Q: What sequence folds into this?
């Protein structure tokens, strides 16, 4: 099974700063099958990015995704107060099955 | 708008059974594959099961294979998860999630979740 490793575990930043979150796969992943989700406490996950770089409907332009192969990145250009949350990457592999990274918490510094 | 509403969670003893439901609205339910994803308290997300749009194929995580059964009733726009032989490690919030294939394979809508607690 493909393992997704997210880093850092926690990112402590101030509003207005740039956040760069990493997701590394144990084997090459098709970019089409890489997605990012945001989860706030007590809420369900929300789709942010699909196909590694396409923003989901209603997602602000400050969120962007990039990468290919085994290395993917979620960037938040300028953090807004509502962006402090946990972020998960997800990949699909044939079987079918889906796996998630362990998550990165973006915390207020 | 798309809505997914889970129900059926609760407290159950180890070895017991529970059936979760997910009522869908706002989209053509019979055209989309559906998933169950769970999250243990304070932990990350774990995919549990997937069912194709017509129920013809079902797939499971190794951790639940042989104990859980995913099913759907397209006439009722409802997804189910029958959970048998429950263990303490099955304690989690269970989410249903709609599968989307446009531009990739991902989950574009999620329900609010239902809590399952396995404890004696």
A:
């Amino acid at each position: 099974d493909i393992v997704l490793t997210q880093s850092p575990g926690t990112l402590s930043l101030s509003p207005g700063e740039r956040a760069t979150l990493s997701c590394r796969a144990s084997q090459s992943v098709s970019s089409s099958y890489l997605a990012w989700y945001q989860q706030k406490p007590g809420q369900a996950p929300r789709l942010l990015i699909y196909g590694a770089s396409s923003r989901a409907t209603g997602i602000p332009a400050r969120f962007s995704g990039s990468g290919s192969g085994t290395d993917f990145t979620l960037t938040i250009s300028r953090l807004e107060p509502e962006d402090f949350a946990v972020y998960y990457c997800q990949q699909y592999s044939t079987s079918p099955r889906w796996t998630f990274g362990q998550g990165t918490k973006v915390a207020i510094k | 708008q798309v809505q997914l509403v889970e129900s059926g969670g609760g407290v159950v003893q180890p070895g017991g059974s529970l059936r979760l439901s997910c009522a869908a609205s706002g989209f053509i339910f019979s055209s989309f594959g559906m998933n169950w994803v769970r999250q243990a308290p304070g932990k990350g997300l774990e995919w549990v099961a997937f069912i194709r749009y017509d129920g013809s194929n079902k797939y499971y995580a190794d951790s639940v294979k042989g104990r859980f059964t995913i099913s759907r009733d397209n006439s009722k726009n409802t997804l189910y998860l029958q959970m048998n032989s429950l263990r303490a490690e099955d304690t989690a919030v269970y989410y249903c999630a709609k599968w989307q294939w446009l531009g990739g394979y991902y989950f574009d809508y999620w329900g609010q979740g239902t809590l399952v607690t396995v404890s004696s």
Summary: Residues 27 and 36 of chain B are 18 Å apart (CA to CA). The longest strand of chain B covers residues 92-100.
